[in-house]
Design goal:
Length: 750
């Protein structure tokens, strides 16, 4: 019986149900927080008011002990225990006002019946307990508790048959404390089949704070971790522009290695649709098919498709593919629960790779679908072959990368062709405890066979280049004594020299080159450009200084970095490829002063980056992110970004944001966020919300007004709640915001 009850409790804990109205706290082995030891209190989360203490312990005896005010055995062998009747067995204890029965056959108990076991308690007015394995065990007016999981059940009748099926009549369940019954699940009839691992319930009603919020005429659910077919918890929402929205995912356990999730979608003022996810698990990996289709009242059908597969055949070989599609001509589903989103270009690719650690090879075939025909279509790879090898020793690092790509222009209105890339990087390492020096050579070779659609001509071109560099650093360290506390501070000056001579590249196209944002880390890079189509020319010296402070436990508390690049020659190679030795694309003698700082304190953390032009005395980049907890449970998040893009002013950014979470008392909190764009001279995000949390429920209600991806303001009210031990419900904004910080994926606390 206890075996089945344990399964029953774990099942309900993982699924759903609710507290008992007007519960008598003392009948649940409940101990309030103030009566617990300091060690027991430390194990409780901040919202729980106490815990269940099970005083029962198993006996060392293997026999059955009977006790009572009066013990009688009649002529038929039936034992009668009257007054303080108790039967103690190795794994359980049964007590009642009266007990009668035959050992190893059955017991019938009446009046204040209590059955205790390891982490489990059953109380009832009367009970029949079968001990021979052939009968039915039944408790009337029963309550059930699992001390470890905190699950509680009350039922008019609780029984199990010979096959191990548990029957609950007019019962309800909860994981809430007896002092805080926030949610409840009732069922007029519940059956738990412990052998098959699933249960069914009729006329199921979920109540929150005593108010019914959901009704299910019939429900099927899993009793353990075994996958089971059935409905998942629904999502719902409401907005002024769209009206009521609802989705109800249905999970289909097709086979041990196949399953599917089918999600109907409904938006009152928009239309309806359906999402589909199919998964297949092979001995080598997983394949997933996703489809989102929505029938819009105005635009008609909107569909997105995605097929993904990743297979690892052994420790060396793996393969996969990705197929995305938007078959409805740049129309995107209004409601979408899949991982496919709105994109300018949908990818179709497949790859095969070999990797043994130092030696890596990969073949990739890549094409795109571009729904908006006015968008410029990306180059396709038909195919790309990558191969690399790395050898590392105490004194030398050697890396070689080879890449072949057959680029194809789908529009056939500009150019395409084949490109071969060969990069070799050889560096010597000389180091000890106080410093390092690493001289190196970087060779870059490019070979092109090109076709120009405008002139219908073919051409070939090659570029060879040799760069040299020297990286060096020193490490100084000191101990700082602050009373009895010892801290460690480091100081690391860095010096790097890079010489990359000019190479004429007018005939070299641009398939994938881009110019990176100058940062402290980028200042020590050995290349000027991303991608393989531009080999940047420069002769430069980079100075850097880093300092870190560690506490007594060797945890980094703060770090400071500052550096600057000094150019000994003008740069003549630019992204557009029009290289001319007589015309510099960049004649600055030095870069911005590049600085960054990080602090990790007990009450706040800080990350800051600043790029300052000493010549023009202008700030080109200023970034600040701060997270503060000035007092317990108060959170303040601050951020500021000021960025100047010298090549495209449309990419300039200047905005600030503040978000706070402030507790009103132990359970209630308010949170808000305000983001202001100085370029637009307007706010782009305004959020205010109210949250409630206790030991078994977490609720968040917020109003949000934000600038969406279409540069249009949108607004809505969002409600989310978690019934701990049951499920998650509600709908969240897809935009990152302070509500996510409060929600914290449903975890206890913020």
């Amino acid at each position: 019986m206890f075996k089945h009850l344990r399964t029953y409790a774990l099942f309900f804990q993982s699924l759903f149900i609710l507290p008992i109205a007007n519960a008598q706290v003392d009948q649940w082995d409940w101990t309030p927080r103030e009566s617990l030891t300091a060690e027991q209190q430390a194990q409780l989360n901040q919202y729980c008011q106490g815990t269940y203490i099970n005083s029962w312990q198993a006996t060392n005896s293997k026999t059955t002990n009977l006790s009572g005010d009066l013990i009688v055995r009649d002529k038929k062998g039936v034992i009668h225990l009257q007054g303080a009747a108790e039967i103690v067995q190795p794994n359980s204890t049964l007590s009642a006002n009266t007990i009668e029965g035959i050992p190893d056959d059955y017991y019938r108990a009446n009046g204040d019946v209590t059955l205790r076991g390891d982490n489990q308690l059953i109380r009832s007015s009367s009970a029949y307990i079968s001990n021979n394995g052939n009968g039915t065990t039944e408790f009337n007016d029963a309550t059930f508790l699992n001390h470890q999981s905190g699950t509680r059940v009350a039922a008019k009748s609780l029984s199990n048959d010979q096959e191990g099926v548990i029957f609950i009549e007019e019962g309800f369940f909860t994981t809430c404390e007896p002092t805080q019954e926030s949610w409840q699940l009732y069922g007029s009839s519940i059956e738990l089949d412990t052998k098959s691992g699933f249960g069914t319930a009729k006329h199921v009603q979920i109540r929150i704070a005593g108010i019914p919020v959901f009704y299910f005429p019939w429900l099927r659910f899993p009793l353990d971790d075994t996958r089971q077919t059935g409905f998942l918890f629904p999502e719902f929402g409401y907005s002024g522009s769209d009206g009521f929205s609802f989705s109800a995912p249905f999970y289909w356990n097709i086979a041990p290695n196949y399953d599917a999730t089918i999600t109907p979608q409904f938006i009152q003022k928009k239309g309806e649709g359906i999402d589909l996810e199919l998964r297949h698990l092979s001995p080598y990996g997983q394949t997933t098919y996703e489809q989102s289709t929505f029938s819009d009242n105005d635009e008609g059908e909107q569909t997105l498709l995605k097929l993904t597969s990743k297979q690892k055949f052994n420790d060396y070989f793996n393969a996969g593919f990705l197929l995305e599609a938007n078959p409805t001509d740049n129309k995107f589903p209004e409601a979408n629960s899949t991982s496919i989103g709105e994109k300018d270009h949908y990818q179709r690719s497949m790859y095969f790779a070999f990797n043994n650690g130092n030696f890596f090879n990969k073949v990739t075939y890549l094409t795109y679908q571009t729904p908006d025909k006015s968008d410029d279509q990306p180059f396709e790879w038909q195919p790309r072959v990558d191969s690399s090898y790395q050898m590392t020793s105490s004194y030398m690092d050697y890396k070689v990368n080879v890449q072949y790509t057959d680029f194809y222009d789908p529009a056939e209105d500009d150019f395409d062709g084949e490109r071969v890339v060969l990069n070799q990087d050889l560096a010597l390492n000389f180091s000890n405890s106080w410093g390092t020096i690493s001289p190196g050579l970087l060779t870059q070779y490019r070979d092109y066979d090109l076709h120009d659609y405008k002139t219908s001509t073919d051409s070939s071109n090659t570029v060879g280049h040799l760069s040299s560099y020297i990286d060096s650093s020193l490490l100084f360290e000191r101990r700082i004594l602050d009373g009895q506390t010892s801290r460690r501070q480091t100081l690391e000056p860095r010096l790097s020299y890079l010489y990359a001579p000019f190479e004429y590249q007018n005939q070299v196209p641009n398939f994938d080159a881009s110019e990176p944002t100058m940062t402290y880390s980028q200042a020590f890079s050995h290349t000027r450009f991303n991608g393989s189509d531009r080999i940047g020319d420069t002769e430069q010296i980079t100075f850097g200084l880093e300092s870190r402070l560690y506490d007594a436990n060797n945890n980094e508390k703060w770090a400071f970095k500052a550096g600057q690049v000094f150019y000994l020659e003008d740069r003549y190679v630019g992204i557009n490829g029009n290289t001319n030795k007589d015309t510099a694309v960049d004649d600055a003698k030095r870069s911005d002063l590049l600085t960054s700082a990080d602090y990790f304190g007990n009450n706040y953390s800080l990350t800051a980056n600043l790029n300052y032009n000493l010549d023009d005395q202008n700030v080109n980049l200023a970034q600040l992110v701060a997270s503060m907890e000035p007092v317990d449970d108060v959170k303040i998040n601050l951020s500021y970004l000021y960025s100047i893009n010298n090549t495209d002013p449309d990419d300039d950014a200047k905005q600030a944001s503040i978000g706070t979470i402030f507790p009103l008392n132990q359970n209630w909190s308010i949170y808000n966020q305000y983001t202001y764009d100085f370029n637009r001279e307007d706010s782009t995000k305004e959020i205010v919300g109210l949250g409630y949390e206790n030991c078994c429920i977490k609720v968040s209600l917020s109003y949000q007004d934000w600038l969406n991806d279409d540069n249009v303001f949108d607004r809505g009210v969002f409600l989310q709640f978690i019934l701990r031990g049951l499920s998650t419900a509600g709908r969240a904004n897809s935009e990152a915001n302070i509500a996510d910080n409060y929600w914290n994926q449903g975890n206890v606390g913020y």
